[in-house]
């Protein structure tokens, strides 16, 4: 069973192993390589088979949990010692501190809104952008130009909401935990991070920036903390069933082929330090 | 997605649009004597539409009041835009309309016919700001909703 650690607690070897595994997955020429994950995330921004699986829906958290697990397993195929780390943006809030150090994710974009110039993902020869809504082949960031980072108080307030989600189970749900995490409802823990990092992270092809996975790992950690408080059982997920065009607890998460229910108790697969 | 509130918004919006188009069409017919028909109604532009140059890039926006399927082009390339409904406050059934794009999927910009009538233009300008020296690719027209 893997243990997912904070980016601030990683050793130099753990950081090097994670970066090397990402680059090996990027270079992989068969199977699900890194760009497959970028394309899949783009495809599931859209409504598929009448369902919003990945975004603006109840299944936002389980879909991304499985998406991260698939990536983590793909990285482990290159180095079994690698576990996905998380970026706790309530604690690590600097544009130059973890994870934005030169030995890990690298720093901001040139001129505050351009290509990343430091670290292992700077420049198209080190990390080439192949699938994107914009023409740059180099990773770009525009940190802190827009958006803001949530505070500990913001996260705590969401953890206190006992109901998972509420009708109409989408962007306009005005109560429940899920939309407060995703961002349709204040304090908006997820969307604002994409905006704050900017560059590719703000776009439909946001997984082009490896920081995407560290951010979503933290979102999954918060979901884990919520489940620790309120329960890991299938009865905690809503809707429970019978809601057309919404992913109910026993429906399959496409394209992964697992049900929402099967993703809820992850403790046999990984835990958080 | 908020099918119920979106449906309501679209229904009321479509009704208002039909009334406005009908009134305009009748006025136009009375003044010009031209024959009215579906083609004439379809060519009526939304007063919020725009076409201008911003930071060296040509931005063009066409509103679709009836269906919310707005169009934005930057230097002739299509930017995917989606209209969404968001809650005005916790525990409120009221929603407001906003637009997001494939370049700003996590950053909704309010759009209406009042104080936020320039929401689509703000979205286009934000996209240009983000692009800098870049251009859109065909992936910018990716479906997302």
Automatic annotation (TrEMBL), chain A:
It holds the Pfam family Tyrosinase. Residues 55-72, 209-220 form the Tyrosinase copper-binding domain. Its cofactor is Cu(2+). Keywords: Copper, Metal-binding. GO terms for molecular function: metal ion binding; oxidoreductase activity. Belongs to the tyrosinase family. This is Tyrosinase.
Automatic annotation (TrEMBL), chain B:
It comes from the Bacteria. InterPro entries: GriE/MELC1_sf (IPR023199), MelC1 (IPR010928), TAT_signal (IPR006311). PROSITE patterns: TAT. One of its GO terms (molecular function) is copper ion binding. GO terms for biological process: melanin biosynthetic process. Belongs to the melC1 family. This is Tyrosinase co-factor MelC1. The lineage of its organism: Bacteria, Bacillati, Actinomycetota, Actinomycetes, Pseudonocardiales.
């Amino acid at each position: 069973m893997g243990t997912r650690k904070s980016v601030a607690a990683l050793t130099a070897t753990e950081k090097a192993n994670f970066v090397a595994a990402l680059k090996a997955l990027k270079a992989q020429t068969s199977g699900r390589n890194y760009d497959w994950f970028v394309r899949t995330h783009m495809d599931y921004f859209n409504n598929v088979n009448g369902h919003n699986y990945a975004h603006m829906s109840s299944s936002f958290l389980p879909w991304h949990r499985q998406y991260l697990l698939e990536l983590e397993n793909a990285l482990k195929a290159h180095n079994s010692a690698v576990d996905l780390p998380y970026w706790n943006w309530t604690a690590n809030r600097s544009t130059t501190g973890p994870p934005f150090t030169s030995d890990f994710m690298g720093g901001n974009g040139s001129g505050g809104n351009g290509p990343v110039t430091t670290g292992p993902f700077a420049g198209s020869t080190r990390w080439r952008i192949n699938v994107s809504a914009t023409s740059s082949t180099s990773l770009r960031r525009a940190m802190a130009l827009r958006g803001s980072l949530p505070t500990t108080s913001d996260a705590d307030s969401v953890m206190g909401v006992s109901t998972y989600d509420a009708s109409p189970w989408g962007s306009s749900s005005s109560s429940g935990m899920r939309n407060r995490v995703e961002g349709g409802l204040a304090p908006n823990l997820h969307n604002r991070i994409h905006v704050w990092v900017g560059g590719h992270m703000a776009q439909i092809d946001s997984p082009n920036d490896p920081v995407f996975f560290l951010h979503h790992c933290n979102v999954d950690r918060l979901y884990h903390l919520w489940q620790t408080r309120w329960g890991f059982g299938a009865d905690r997920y809503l809707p429970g069933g019978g809601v057309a065009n919404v992913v109910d607890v026993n429906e399959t998460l496409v394209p992964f082929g697992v049900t929402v229910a099967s993703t809820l108790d992850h403790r046999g697969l990984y835990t958080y330090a | 997605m908020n099918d119920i509130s979106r449906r309501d918004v679209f229904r009321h919006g479509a009704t208002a649009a039909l009334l406005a188009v009908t009134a305009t069409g009748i006025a136009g017919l009375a003044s010009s004597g031209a024959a009215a028909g579906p083609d004439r109604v379809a060519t009526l532009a939304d007063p919020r539409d725009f076409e201008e140059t911003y930071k060296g890039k040509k931005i063009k926006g066409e509103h679709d009041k009836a269906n919310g399927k707005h169009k934005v082009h930057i230097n002739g390339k299509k930017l995917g835009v989606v209209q969404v409904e968001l809650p005005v406050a916790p525990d409120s059934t009221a929603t407001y309309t906003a637009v997001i794009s494939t370049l700003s999927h996590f950053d909704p910009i309010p759009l209406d016919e009042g104080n936020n009538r320039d929401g689509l233009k703000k979205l286009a300008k934000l996209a240009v700001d983000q692009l800098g020296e870049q251009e859109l690719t065909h992936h910018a027209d990716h479906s997302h909703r």
